[in-house]
Amino acid sequence: MAWGAEGHRLVGYVADAELSPKARIEVRRIMKADSIASVANWMDEVRDTPEGRRMQRWHFITMKACGDLLPSCKNGNCATGRIEWARDVLRTGSSDEALTALRVLVHLTGDVHQPLHAADNGDYGGNGASVTNRMCVEFGATRPSACKLHTYWDSSLVKAALRDQSERDAAATWSASAAKLPSTDSDSAADWAVESNELARQTAYQFEGFACKMKRQSFAADEAYDAVGVATVKQQIVRAGRRLARTLNSVFD
Fold it and tell me: Domains in the chain, ordered, with CATH?
């Protein structure tokens, strides 16, 4: 999973604020709800159904954490391939697939911005690595615990970043304090994935004792690692929300 339920809703709330009037009308018509956050977790909610299992490989793109990236997306069944599929469906106006395509676009745009959904060190995107840190349990606990590195980035850092803010308020605050996307910012999901991979190399896998191509590793995250992680999470959630809104605006305007 990527970002956990909170992170995906945050992406939706950021996107809500940047929709054009026409895109807002069309998105609400398709999803029959006021906020994109309401459909942001659908792909995770159906994971244990036949449809969810069919979409299992869509949540990530395999790219190496060391050396050449070597992206792997067989038959388009990865996050970047399915983002492009969803865009195409929404552009053609196919009513039968519009809701599914919107749900997929919202969720996978979030997924591809989580660094460990675009980087693998032979550890299944950090699922084989273990981190000991107080944020692996309820935020504010005094005793360190252990969790998967992937879980730490999916959920623990998001909860730490939220603190006592509501998700809607946090999305507005983070977005207001973040730099605008440059005019040259890419619309390509493949480029977003490369960006996430680079962040994984610079942040998630930047711990003492890290070794390339090591399936099982463990480390204790210090406060500096936590701080970089929280800042990265906020940045990537805002980027995902803004790029999602820009995509929907380009589809419907």
Answer: 4-252 (1.10.575.10)
